[in-house]
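Example 3.2
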Amino acid sequence: MKVLMAPVVVLAALLAAAPASADPGADPAHPTGTAYSPPSVDHTQWARWGRLTSLRVYPTQAGRAAARHAGTAAGDEAWTEVLAQSPDADTPGMRAQFICHWQFAEFAQPGKTSWNLEPWRPVVDDSEMVASGCNPGGSEEPF
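Structure, written as tokens:
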């Protein structure tokens, strides 16, 4: 049970650190309500880890800032950018992994080089996705 409590504690800390909805940098004229504008994704790159594949998503500085302050609508816009660069990423579970990274990566590991998504990971509900650190079904790959 102790192992399962760590992700819950991390999630609680992340949610407590999340900005209030009344963001002083908000721009009501922008569709996402923020002053951050696309592109959010600099580039994507498929990589192999043994026999498994991983899509590395490299966010822009604007994408990182938006992920720290914007809601899921901006995350959906960023996911559209991922699919424009890597259409083959549109497989079950990949969007959920991306949205999880969008919502939590910059709080948990600010500035991480890439957000890595794997099509081989199981499709899980939101609570299991967060509890697994956005990496359900196994540990994060070592790159």
